[in-house]
């Protein structure tokens, strides 16, 4: 293999580039990214960076002495993949021909119809998004967060600490019911009320009001929530449109085996756009977490360099964390497959718990709130 192209220059792409060199690949390495920035850490964008306690230099993922010997093509978007000669077509008219391709184009924040061009309405996915939101938060006032998932909750927590008046609107009856289940989702989301943040559940957003700048969020039940600032946190869509017609199978992202291999030889996928097969559950899952982008490229690169002639392993259960209102929230596994969940350490009223999810008596997931030591021990057991 003489040339490998990594399409995507965030954590997953950087992890793939590092893994290539670590596993002995010494050929030409081209990293393509649509942002102008070199790889940076995204989790702090909704927390420390937004609060002003971390600067942009603190987000850099590459170390000072790191030299991957890569060609960096930044600020240009991939628009197609020609499977005949395995060429990545770029928006600026260039092509990168490669013997191997790593797809790491991530995901983009979903927006609300009608929000385009209305000042004070933000999504949070990129460094540029975070810069703009941080500037607006400095104005103070009333913030409405649409979506009670982890990004929305972290923004609400940060903005509340900065002194803004914060309301979170969540269409589902219980925030975080998807990743945590209804019982634990309600427990974690109670942190909002604990810190004076209003939480409106079970109601959708009908639209936004304002001529040039946001003035209010209009709810489907007829209520109007005044707003000087809005953050839309309603999930993300995988960035895979550029792969249409390439021969790479697409299904909620790039459909992959349990080691990142795609339907096209010489092409693997990693990160938020990759829908990997999970042998434990017997289905495909797209894991949008930092640890997946950091850990899974090793298996994908091994498969790429071996031409697919390696036995797929079993990916570690997904793990993510969130910092909200001074509470460290950690989760590993899949709550959806559990038939029971029990709090085994701590007290719910103190927001200091360790909860274990089980299916037929076997642990399948674990949740910790300010329980890092016990959580780490049980997380290791899940992966055994």
Describe the structure.
With 384 residues, this protein is α/β, with parallel strands linked by helices. It is 22% helix and 32% strand. It has 9 helices and 26 strands. The chain has helices spanning 11-22, 48-51, 127-137, 150-161, 177-180, 182-194, 290-295, 297-305, 372-383, and strands spanning 3-7, 28-33, 70-74, 78-82, 87-90, 95-97, 100-103, 107-109, 121-122, 142-146, 165-170, 198-201, 205-209, 216-219, 224-226, 229-232, 236-238, 254-255, 267-269, 274-278, 283-286, 319-324, 327-333, 340-347, 352-359, 362-369. A 5-stranded parallel sheet has the order 3-2-1-7-19, covered by helices on one side. Strand 14 (216-219) and strand 15 (224-226) form a beta hairpin. Helix 1 crosses helix 8 (297-305). The longest helix has 13 residues, at 182-194. It is globular, with a radius of gyration of 21 Å. The relative contact order is 0.13. The model has no long low-confidence stretch (mean pLDDT 94).
